[in-house]
Amino acid sequence: TRRHAVTLGAAAGISAALPLRYARAAEFSFKWGTNVPEAHPLNVYGRKAAEALTQATNGRVELRLFPNNQLGGDADMLSQVRSGALECFSLSGVNVLSTMLPASAISGVGFAFKDYPMLWNAMDGKLGAWLRGQINKAGLVAMEKIWDNGFRQVTTSTRPIVKPEDFRGLKIRVPVSSLWTSLFQGLGASPTGLNFAEVYTALQTKVVDAQENPPAIIAASKFYEVQKYCSLTNHMWDGWWFLMNRRAWGQLPPDLQETFAKVVNAAAVAEREEVARQNENLKAELAQKGLIFNAVDPEPFRMMLSNAGFYKNWKAKFGPEAWALLEESTGPLS
Ligand code: X2X
């Protein structure tokens, strides 16, 4: 049987030949774009999901992963997944998705989530369900489990961030997003919105002196080559929704939709564990590569944001319903 052949192939370590083991071409072949390098767990677990999906559907559904902005930058991939040129795209709700759907940025409010239990309780609970509903209304499909990127840390080539004043005038890259821009303006920095594909070069050529991302990305994207300090600000959490073009999703019959969702969501849950592990363990490895780490007390930074009117302004923008859902998980934010 086909299944038997797959097992033998896997045991023999043959994976490049996978499609040949199926007599017919896949009935449904979906491209999946991501914005981070091959080595990042998003792609490692993405590849596992693609293999599992081929097996679980006997080759009927094929997921072809294109990591590292191979299909274009964040904004390009978003328009492609909206038009149907791309079927699947992993995108943060706080990133360019929020330019078409402002509500999707609410998970990125500064210093909102203290830890992972608080975060998953929200994203796997009512807040996540509400956000997927919004994404759906905007014409895209979001799989239930959001993939982890992690709590974000600031790297710079100039100075460590120890107290809020250290942000003053700092040229820092942020994703193209008004929430991100306002967060760093509130902290006194000079943020520039850039798609992720442009970040390494922008740091290398000193167009910006800083960026902010979790250790797993700092390692996978080799930012340690062009940055000197990493300050553990934990200023916000971020993750990737697995977004799909609605027509592509609708092509799958219900049983295949169910299998697809099950496989992709299971991979997301496994990816979360690996990302959390890496974001903790990679610090030692990055320090060996020359990155200088420092711990940060978040409270003065949160106070500064609060004094800048950040929470008041964003509460008004997101509206009472969304804000109440957020605060249900985080406690009062002001
Ligand atoms: O663009 C970024 O910094 C990244 C990779 O973390 C996101 O996708 C938000």
Q: Care to describe what's here?
A:
- The chain is an alpha/beta fold and 334 residues long.
- It contains 14 helices and twelve strands.
- The strands form three sheets. Strands 1, 2, 3, 4, 5 and 11 form a six-stranded mixed β-sheet that branches.
- Helix 2 (41-56) runs antiparallel to helix 11 (254-288) and helix 5 (116-123) runs antiparallel to helix 14.
- The structure holds (2S)-2-hydroxy-2-methyl-3-oxobutanoic acid (X2X).
- (2S)-2-hydroxy-2-methyl-3-oxobutanoic acid is lined by residues 35-36, 92, 95, 149, 175, 196, 213, 217, 238.
Which term fits the overall shape? Answer: globular
Q: Tell me about the biggest sheet?
A: 6 strands, mixed
Q: What pattern of helices and strands is seen along the backbone?
A: HEHEHEHHHEEEEHEHEHEEHHEHHH
Q: What is the mean pLDDT?
A: 94
Which percent range describes the beta-strand content?
15-25%
pLDDT < 50 stretches:
1-14
Compute the gyration radius: what is it? 20 Å
Q: Tell me which ligands are bound.
A: (2S)-2-hydroxy-2-methyl-3-oxobutanoic acid
Number of helix segments? 14
Structural class, judged by helices and strands?
Answer: alpha/beta
- Distance from N terminus to C terminus (CA atoms, Å) equals 61 Å
| Extended strand count | 12
Helix content: 40-55%
